[in-house]
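Let us practice reading a record.
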Amino acid sequence: MNTEILGVILQWTLLVVLCYPLGRYIAKVYRGERTWLDCMAPVERGIYKFCGIDPAQEMNWKQFLKALLTVNLFWFFWGMLLLVLQGWLPLNPDGNPGQSPDLAFNTCISFMVNCNLQHYSGETGLSYFTQLFVIMLFQFVTAACGMAAMAGVMKALAGKTTKTIGNFWVFLTRSVTRILMPLSLVVGILLVVNGTPMSFDGKQTLTTLEGAEQVISQGPTAAIVPIKQLGTNGGGYFGTNSAHPLENPNAFTNILECWSILILPMAMVFAFGFYTRRRRLAAWIFGVMLFAYTAGVIVSVWQETAGSPQIDRMGIAQELGSMEGKEIRIGSAASAMWGMTTTVTSNGSVNSMHDSQTPLSGMLQMLNMQINCWFGGVGVGWMNYFAFLIIAVFISGLMVGRTPEFLGRKVEAREMKIATLVVLMHPFLILVGTGISAAIAAANPEIGWLNNPSFHGLSEMLYEYTSSAANNGSGFEGLGDNTPFWNISTGIALIMGRYFPIVGQVAIAGLLASKKCIPESAGTLRTDTGTFSLMTFAVIIIVAALSFFPALALGPIADYLTF
């Protein structure tokens, strides 16, 4: 147990220490400054020439969003076609059939919006072809789209008065060639060295020590797992995700993969500071996010290592902690760390079954996604925090009786309305979806969605919509979710939860960029102070967290009180 705790501390330290220099590097990439990966410039020029892109052309925020949404729409039709037809496509040695239209819709949308919610089992639901040319491809594209969107926001806020926010295609390409691919290559090599398979062979039939035969899936796992983690995607190559011994073989790979989930979202906060030359503001934002993340890790590790009270009352020792739904080679502390890490981002990968974790851990996992801005998805997590910054700026302006200002630009009614809509859309999607599904389940108990009744059954449905709206992808897997209702309803939540905030936040940045930039007025509450950071934290807790308190009280909190 002590070794597990040391592993948690080591991983936390590596994240905090390495995210700062990585953030500086990312800022240089997006500013077009010299970096050690300038050798990728010929590749990037080739991409621009092949695609007919003028990298020198600047875009306003409307053109920027049009490009972002267009590329996503194209890949949606690409993914739908391949998923439905995968039974007739090559690289399918195991003969996996095509997906049904409703499941293909959910799968395609899920990976297109950087969520990776899976209503299928990885190794049996997809062929090697679709794993590579839909899943892995989308994991690069969607992560890069989120990073490009944040790069546009940073450029808008860094300049003086401007009508343009950069070139989406340039930001998208550099995100892949200079950030995601190099990191994925390093992580992939380390995974191969530690036993993660990388082949195109079909299933192997092996004889166990007991003399029984067991069929083992393999495939190009090591190519897909790195970008699954680094791009805050999370979709499992295998059905059990990173609890599978071939996807996550040992303690080293567990730390490596869990570190990979959070390193880019952390670094993007500092990238904002370096890009806009507002490092003090970035440091305060990072501090608020790190405090919330660390507090969650401490509580969850304490809950999981303490074990189950019911089992204690039976006189059964729990020296390893609560091990229901966990892997022995990983342990309870490392499972709790992963659960918090994957839900403060939009990653959603798991190394244990969240449905089996103790009630308070499950509640914190849901709360992380319901708040959805403690680091969050790569790029878009900071942008979600940005919406709360705008609201906090507006409130601080009311407090001192002055026009609200953010980085020297006046925040007016238009920006405030957009920020409010962005913030309120998230609880609307989650609570309305949960209410409808709960009403249907109560009226039709024979429908068979819920394997767990009462409080935990509500938690399972609440978690599913929370995960979908937050573009996370993890789940309380006691829920029978591969049905037309869940595939379509969560698909709608996925679309709205991804594109509505991105459109709103890029629009706010574009509108602010077009305004006259002046020095921050005397008497305003500066955005790079601890007081303003505390105010923003309070706004997040009041607006985001308390919106979900009634639902949490009926689900995981009630579950905890009867635990």
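A brief commentary: Residues 160 and 517 are 5 Å apart (CA to CA).
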